[in-house]
Amino acid sequence: MGDIIFVHGLGGTAMRTWSWKRDTTNFWPAWLTEEKTLSRFRIFSFGYNSNFKGAATNLNTIDFAKELLFSMLTHSGSVGEKHGGNTAVGARPIIFVAHSMGGLVVKKACVLGQHDKQYSSLVSQIYGILFLGTPHRGAQYAKMLNILSSALTGSAPKDYVADLDIHSTSLQDINEQFRTTCDGFELASFFETQKTSFGITKLLIVEKESAVLGYPQETSIPLNADHHNLCKFESRGDPNYTSVKNLIKHWASKISLPQQGCISRQMTGTNEINVLREALGIRETADMDLDIIQNNILGGSGEWITQRQDFIAWHQRLFENNPAVFWLIGLPATGKTAIATTVINHLQLLGHDTVFHLFTCGHQQKKTASYCLRSIALQIAKLDEEFLQHISHLIEESGSDFGLPTNNFDSLWEKVFCGLILKMNRQAPLFFVLDGLDEADLQTSLLGRLLKIQSRFPIRIFLTSRPMKVPLAPPGISILPHLLMEKDTADDINAYVQRMVQVALPDDSQIQEEVIQEVLNKASGSFLWVKLTLETLQDSWHTKEDIRAALSEVPKGMELLYGRMLEKIKAQSQRTVLIARRILTLTICCWRPLTLIELQKALEPEFQGFVRLEHTIAQICGHFISVDNSKIFLVHGTARNFLLSSNQTDPPFVDRCEGHELLATACFRTLSNDQWRLSLKSISPANTKHESVLRDGGLSHIEKAHPLLRYAACHWAYHLSRSSSSSEPLIGDLKSFLGKNSLSWIEAIATLGTLSYIVRAARYLKAYAKQRSQGSGVHNSGIILSLRELPKDETKILQSWANDFIRLVGKFGKSLVQHPSSIRRLIIPFCPKESAIATAQCHMGPNSLTVTGLPLEGWGDCLARVTMGDSQMVSKVLATDRLFFTLASSSGTIIAWSTDTCEEIRRLEHHEYVLMMVVNISETRLATAGFSGYRIWDIFSGAQEHYLPKWTEALTITIMFGQSDSQLLIGLDDCTVTTYELQDFTIRSRFTIQEKIREALSCPHTISISPNRENVAVAWRGKPLMVWDMTQDALPQSCQVNGNSDSLMAPEQVLWQNNGNSILILCLDSKLFEWNLYDEEQFEYGKYHDMNAREMALSSDGTLLLTSDNFGTMSVWSFPRLQLIYRLINSNEYIRALTFSPSAQRFYGTRDSTCNVWEPDALVHPETTDLADSSSIAESYAATEPVVSKDESSENQVTALATSSDDRWFCCGKEDGSVIIHDAQTSTKIRKVCNYTAASAVILLEWSKSGRYIVSSDESGRVISKRLEVKEPGKWTIYPGLDARFSEPVLQFVFSADEKLLLMSLGTFDCVWDLKSKNQICQQYRAKTTKGKWVADPINAEILLWIDENTIYQYEWLTLMCNEADHSHVQIPCSMDCMSTVRKVALTSNSQTLVYELAPNKGIGSKSLRVLSISSLSHSWEVDLLHRVKSLIGVIQNRIVFLDDNNWVCTWEIEAGNADVRHQFCLPSDLLNASTLELMRLSDFGSFFCPRLGNVVVVRHGLRL
Questions:
Q1: Every domain of the chain and the residues it spans
Q2: How much of the chain, in percent, has pLDDT values that exceed 90?
Q3: How many CA atoms within 13 Å lie on the side-chain side of 578?
Q4: Rg (CA), the chain
Q5: Where would I find the GPI inositol-deacylase winged helix domain in this sequence (predicted)?
């Protein structure tokens, strides 16, 4: 099954190192084969010459590592062959067990083997490494050992001993290299807790800090032994042997899992896991939290619970799919977490797939239910390859970033748990262990969801909590509560006390017994009390009298003990007390546990120069703080409450508000440091290669010199929002930071790749601005500090900064992550000139990139405007994370649009009138309902998966996916709700309204199914709303009304709240009611609010309500208070449909044939909570003034664009039929050229190269040309030209070289007109509709070139005749699989080369660029770039200018290598959609023109050639 290889340390041998008292009859590795789990593993012990007493050698750690690798490779006799029937080492998984220096040898062997072809296969088989006292960071006595050895033996110092020194460069190199090698390894580090005898003294050879690597996948465990006996065990019953053996068995069981039908951890790919970990926002794995707990508990603690009959019964119900819950309830500090840890280890050792989460109030994210779900999802992905593939596919296809704050608990539960985890096809049970449920932010919601789990496989849940109400279990669910009693943990506490006392007082059994009995008599079942009591007693253990006196003074109970500990702190010197207070304050107020070095930096400059901060903490902080793996933790949540509480005589020892201000100040101080900003600038130029290197390492190399940088960058705003709003020094620091250092901060966050921190900072900044605006100076604890008047513009400035941060992420998110340094030169110019961030960064150079045509004051709330085309009315809209869909019911056409770019992705054709559409829970499928049937589509591929015919004449009123994607619920106007299995179209269930009611009320006009698919609300006109429980035969609940004139007699729209407990009812008279089904209460909202609602939509979390009135004004309200947050005023366009995005930070509204996408700043609420409870969102909007905006999408949009050749002017046509010339420098209007009817939009514009002619066409087929003259600067004279009408729109204009002729290309024919005589010269119909473009031949003025996907034709201008006999056409091979269209054509400045863009006809596929030599038309080739082309923009000099998939304007030199692509500047996402991509223009001077709503954006100095 596998190999276990033992490697000894300094001065050891292959056998004696592992034998008690060096007697090989006690060789314990041989005992392992007696274990069933390990019986099929081979045991090897590697020996090498590491004797420090012998003659000198020049060997070092590298030589020993090479010897180990060679021994493994040649074990089978000869390289690559078998010997004696033995399987070669490396053919099966390998577990290393290494003592002391042997661990360094193994690490070096891993590093060497990975980069050596002959050994790489060996290293790839390494499963795990178990270190026993390995000095990863060196041993402080190594140098002394070398000196003594040389003095006693007369031999020279040994190189391999020198390698163990704490200053050894060899050791540092091994650690750096091993960090990148060990991904995928299981790691465990056992460390000594007893000192080793050296004659008359005892020393701790390898301290814990050196023996523990601190890697995410590492388990660190203490052993009750010195360095010498750490690898030797007296008997099979030795507790140390049990600990080591159990871990090896645990690893072995995982290796064995595939042959047992279970799922192997090795099946998962490290890269996939890392990508998933980033997408889930998990920085510290659950195993790291578990290790910290295990390091602080005694081996064997809590094992009593595994012997309880109720626990055994819970555990052994392995094949019942209904979840069973074992709930351990206990008082604070009674060892619940230790018991949960024991249960986790017990289940894992039994081979069960076990996932867990330890809730803690010391980490703002880890106490949230959403983080719990994300952590569990990552653990399941490591266990189950099926789930890993499914969630990876979901993230890749949907673009979901589950680590964002907008992905709340409900969204995660529906998409990940209901959509994926609970649908896994597995037989083995899955165990959940959740510790500290009472500390979770959404404990009720989380518990409710867990108890309603319906899965395809068995699930067992183990919970721990403080006393709380145990809910009634739903049918089929069993809850086994157990109240933790003192007798349960008495043996564990007894063993712990005895162990600790015997270690501390090893030589006096009498005093041992006295201490043990006294402590146990007062313990009252509290592990924490025992631990802290023993720690405080050790401070006085000098004489027996001291011990007895200290025992007599030990208080009973946690509160009194805490008080005693605090008294000792206060009894120290004034400066020492202040240091202790600062340390405790920072520990309590930090976002997540600080490391020692972070804490040290946060204490500066007030306190600095600590010799060893960890020792200082142990000496002066009264045992309130523990240090594990170099991280600072408060001993318990109850200690936090104690230190923050006041009593009748004393204020709190820790001032929470002061602590947050201290941390905020430390963050600002760090972020304002010029050194790290210079380091970042020096290694992150606008060079793609350098920035990719920077991203790979994040900020890690900069953090070495600035250890608080990452924490400061991520959490400054959190601490700011929790600080006193009256602190003037703090507001000064904030203003300085925003004005001078905010761009560096944004660059640092972008380098980390987690832009969610910027959005989170904006939320906290809004909350702080809100506190400042109230002007009361109220302390967070409620104490009034002062009354003052604040400058009225201060709040506005802070809110402006917050909105700027939000907009930067929304518009430039991808670009920032790709090129963090672009924030300075390339992104700021796109910000509104009067925005806070642009105002602060106004010092741009003379040749810097400039942008005109953008709003001066605000960013604008309209993100994009998309159209169905062909005058199709948009009747429905719905949105997912990655796509949003618009439906034209009459044609049955559904268009999928990208939420990132608002580009059309694909079209789905239902081929009949479509009534409605809906997506499934996980947002992977779309269902559409027509008159004759239902179609199910794969959202990401566009493929139709199922078609379900409708067998009845009844009209479809509602459709909804079931809890499973394979089910579809259909509600018809015959009063039935039927659930269909889509795989075989069988009916799973059918609910029919009672016959008497159905006959009396006829056909309903509204049916709405509850989120849990168990209840249905049905509305008839002239009748009150009724609700049925579809799971049982019972009478319905009926909405209470007061007579026939009651508004509730005319319900128009019915929406269920996401909890399924209440219903929103919009009535015909625009009144809004909420009906609580459980309390039978009805509340009218419209009575107190100016709503006038005609349509409404509810956010996915139920906290926001979107309404529209008869005139098209849309309003967003917080729920349930129904406070107005945002209003978008429109007075002339009726809203047909509206919806929220899943995050509720964007909404969509349809008008006629268009759908507008809105993303107002106001929807990013001020963060007044710890990003925990979505239900508190409404609270965060309290006392916030609503934002009222004008609908800028109602302005006349630019629909056609042309530029003058001198770069001074541009001409735009709009949807109102106007054609106007503008100044390109200022965007001001100069002269109207012509005007079409208001009902016909201008769709095509062309400006001749000389500037004398402008020709335009509208969508009705009318063509107008004008001749222009400039009498004086800025004064234009317009002369009439031709005015012609055609039966179809014009698609292209081409001027002849002398500008006497004009080619017009239409859908079915082409024609040439004389501009002077205004007469048509010739016309040619095409035999078939082709998708090509015309170009005037730059060499021969009498020739026109026609270019389509694979052919180039030459035509005569005057006849439009093609003479094939003169070789006037050339065949060009095309690599595209489908028919394609030539979309854009551009010529180089020397007119020698032509570039054109090919795009597929059907759907949205990858576009390609082709280059054609004009002098030799047969010389054509396709551009093979490393970047996906979104659109060709033009050609400048000899470089192609194009837009890539990430909205970067790029250039590429023709005939250069594909790596020569240069990123010039990025465009904001709201600037681009299907229409603007077609209208982008590039002048001969390199200026870029692009429409935005009713304006034109002009970018100058953007192309650096």
A1: 1-260, 262-484, 486-556, 657-852
A2: 36
A3: 6
A4: 37
A5: 572-647
Q: How far is CA 365 from each of CA 49, 283, 626, 1168, 1170, rounded to the nearest angstrom?
A: 50, 11, 20, 15, 8
Tokens of 910: 């239902």
CA angle 625, 627, 632 (to 5 degrees): 70
DSSP line for 488-509: HHHHHHHHHHHHHHHHHSTT-H
CA dist list (Å): 324 to 235, 444, 482, 1134, 1351: 39, 18, 14, 53, 70
The number of residues making up the chain comes to: 1505
DSSP 1438-1491: TEEEEEETTSEEEEEETTS-GGG-EEEEE--GGG-SHHHHHH-EE-TTS-EEEE
Q: Classify the phi-psi angles of 372: left when phi > 0, otherwise alpha if psi is within -120 to 50, otherwise beta.
A: alpha
Closest-CA residue to 285 (of 195, 355, 180): 355
Largest separation between any pair of C-alpha atoms in the chain = 123
- No. of H helices and E strands in the chain? 39, 72
For residue 414, the 8-state DSSP code is I
Closest CA to 444 of 1175, 1120, 1121: 1175
Query: What integer pLDDT is reported at residue 688 of this predicted model?
Result: 39
Q: Which of 859, 1472, 894 is nearest to 1137 (CA)?
A: 894
For residue 318, name the pLDDT band (cuts at 50, 70, 90). Answer: low
* Angstrom distances, CA of residue 301 to CA of 326, 339, 344, 485, 489: 19, 7, 13, 15, 8
Examine domains 1-260 and 262-484 and report if their fold is the same.
yes
Which tens digit of pLDDT belongs to each residue from 63-73? 899 999 999 88
Report the pLDDT averaged over residues 743-771: 88
Q: What is the pLDDT of residues 91-141, one digit of tens each?
A: 889 999 999 999 999 999 998 988 888 888 888 899 999 999 999 887 655
Give alpha helix (H) positions in 130-238. Answer: 142-153, 159-162, 169-181, 208-211
Cα(915)–Cα(920) distance, integer angstroms: 17
C-alpha separations of 853 from 442, 759, 1223, 1225, 1491 in Å: 47, 26, 11, 9, 9
Q: What is the mean pLDDT of the chain?
A: 83
Identify which has the larger pLDDT, 558 or 1147: 1147
Q: What is the mean pLDDT of residues 573-602?
A: 94
CB-CB contact of 59 with 159 (8 Å): yes
Measured CA angle at 172 (ends 168, 177), to 5 deg = 145
| Cβ burial, residue 36 (10 Å; 0-12/13-18/19+) | exposed
Residues 6+ apart with CB under 8 A from 468: 329, 437, 438, 443
At 1415, list the tokens: 């002098």
292-306 exposure pattern, b = at least 16 Cβ within 10 A, e = fewer:
bbbbbbbbebbebbb
Give kind and range of the element (H or E) at residue 1008.
Answer: strand 1006-1009
Q: How many CA atoms lie within 13 A of 289 on its CB side?
A: 26
Tokens of 406: 């907008």
CA angle 1163, 392, 390 (to 5 degrees): 110
Is residue 268 helix, strand or coil? Answer: coil
SS3 of residue 20 by DSSP: helix
With CA atoms as reference, report the closest residue to 1436 among 1424, 1421, 1454.
1454
Nearest to 369 by CA among 1101, 987, 875: 1101
Other C-beta atoms lying within 10 Å of the C-beta of residue 1131? 10
Reading the block at residue 918, the tokens are 């809906």
Q: Taking a C-beta distance cutoff of 8 angstroms, is the pair 1261, 1285 a contact?
A: yes
Domain 262-484 CATH (choose: 2.60.40, 3.30.70, 1.10.10, 3.40.50) = 3.40.50
